Amino acid sequence: MRTREAGEVFGPRMTLFADVLSVGLATSVACLPLVTAPAALSTACAVLRGAGQDRPVTAGRYLVLLRQRLRAGDLLAGAVALAGLLLLAADLALAGAGLPGAPLFAVAAAAIGACAAVVGLRACARPESLTDWRAAVRGAARDAVADAGGSGLVLLAVATAALCAWMLLPLAFLAPGPLALALTAVDVRRSAAVLLEQRSAEGPMNGPAASVP
User: Fold this and answer.
1) What helix, strand, coil percent values describe the chain, rounded to 5?
2) First to last CA, the chain
3) What is the model's pTM?
4) Rounded to whole angstroms, how far apart are CA atoms 176 and 40?
5) What is the pLDDT of residue 12?
6) Closest CA to 154 of 189, 120, 182, 134
7) In 153, 172, 182, 197, which residue has its Cα 20 to 30 A from 213's Cα atom?
């Protein structure tokens, strides 16, 4: 990132932070219909990913990209996510009603819900989510297993966002921005690791030994 210029009050990192908050606010508004939440979060991740490619990270660019979304596939992804949340809430409510084996059932339901949330959130951060949710979910499922550290960071980001929203309700409207930034960073980190592994595997084939008949 460029350094602070003469006379500039805020540095580039503070500018990016302000942009993240504006994108987060726009994402919160776009998530209000609920079924639009996956598309809204996916668009936020795409806009924030552009920061590493010298593209503007603004709420205006976010809205431009969002208008290109909300196709049938995006709304279907939102309906599936909403159905999953309602099912998890119903299961936890049944467990809290004192049914036999409720503690074990609650733990199992929470674990399954956490795994599904990690896969869903990592899918939103993948570039494939802009055009193909199935490919994004498949890639996110592979990454969730192969990159346990990244999955832990995703859960930590969600817990931090939830804690901030619980401590101060207005922060709930800004939390999607930092959450999308965290998800994008985890995906970029994973992509860089995969690329490094591929180069390491191809290295010996391109070395001097490869020219020996």
Assistant:
1) 80, 0, 20
2) 47
3) 0.85
4) 10
5) 60
6) 182
7) 197
